[in-house]
Amino acid sequence: MQVLVVGSGGREHALCWKLAQSPQVSKVFVAPGNAGCEAVAERVSIRPTQLDALVDFVHGRGIDLTVVGPEAPLCEGLVDRLQRLGHKVFGPTREAARLEGSKAYAKALARQHNVPGPDFKVFTAARAAYDYLDRNPDFPLVAKADGLAAGKGVRICHSREDANEHIADCFERRRFGEAGERLVFEEFVRGTEASVQVVTDGNTLLVLEPARDYKAAYDGGEGPNTGGMGSYSPAPIERKVMHRIEEKILLPTVHGLAREGHPFCGVLYAGLMLTPTGPRLLEYNVRFGDPETQPTLARLQSDLFELLWRTVEGTLADYQVAWDPRPALTITLTSAGYPGRYETSKPIRGIEAAEEDPDVVVFHAGTERRMGKLVTNGGRVLNVTALGDTLAQAREKAYAAARKIEFEGLVFRTDIGA
Questions:
Q1: What domains, with CATH codes, occur in the chain?
Q2: What is the pLDDT, as a whole number, of residue 167?
Q3: Smallest Cα–Cα separation from 266: which of 176, 201, 172?
Q4: Cα separation of 339 and 203, whole Å?
Q5: Cβ atoms within 10 Å of 409's Cβ, excluding its own
Q6: Is pLDDT at 151 greater than 70 in this prediction?
Q7: N or C terminus: fewer CB in 10 A for the chain?
Q8: SS3 letters across 182-233
């Protein structure tokens, strides 16, 4: 079987790495991929949002399965276009992808189907948002740009000044473009964050091992939100809580979409807050999380291709997934300045030394090869992932490996899994 992975980050490198291990896969392509993907896949010079070119490639090469990594092509309808031509593709249709493409839509759907989550208000103009703050002075609260903003459209507002700033970013400065044409103010919920990903063919739900993501740029949860500074799996969620998440959050959402005529096929990611009164939904993503995918796939012992193929074929009902019982932890190495402005083209050294431990794999996120040298090519550069007999051991191995890697301006959090 020939497989195409769409995307260029650490998640896509991890998907290529795991798919290439399948005896059922003869060839993995990645569009466009990064320098790390080259060891396990053939790169194709097509960006994820170049839908015409992607469709032409899949159709022309006779790709057996397309796996869409990032959210943008899903929200723009890549799956719909490929399915109309009879191609197998892992990912939701454009309508189902609205769960991530519009936070307001996702929250309205959740409310309609009694999914527990924070109270919220939606605004389409600055004046109405300012008026709301005049009437509701309680802080903190969470402000979210409605659309896709690469993980940077969310802000925890501790003061009126913070909230005013986010309103201005959305409506006046248009920092988030079309994604900020609607603004969601959301109740701030306290508890422990967790991420649960479920693979579903629209009927059967196969819950993957839970993970925890670290969004803030700096130690202790300080600083701006990023695309993710690290993660580990499994997150410590009790079995009865996992059952409640499936019963009260995931099942109502998947079945609600099916009743609306938009069955969900792919992976549904629930960002959750575990509170004293039970789990509450913060957000949905409609694709594998990044960097949660990296430690999750490091622990997956089953054939990833078979899992994804069964999903698109609608035969998940009798399938069981096997996991390595050992925890895995991922540390994201970033360029100085991320998630703001940063420099690229900095030479990278030490990856081979970092991977001398057989329990360590370094997934590339923002790398490129220029003039024969490996250099930085993004804000999030590398995902150092390690397995250990305990979470503490996985953490120790990951940080030992991360400290062997060098590039100018290298930054990482020191408290992942602490």
A1: 2-94 (3.40.50.20), 119-187 (3.30.1490.20), 192-313 (3.30.470.20), 328-411 (3.90.600.10)
A2: 94
A3: 201
A4: 38
A5: 15
A6: no
A7: C
A8: CEEEEECCCCEEEEEEEEECCCCEEECCCEEECCEEEHHHEEEECCCCEEEE
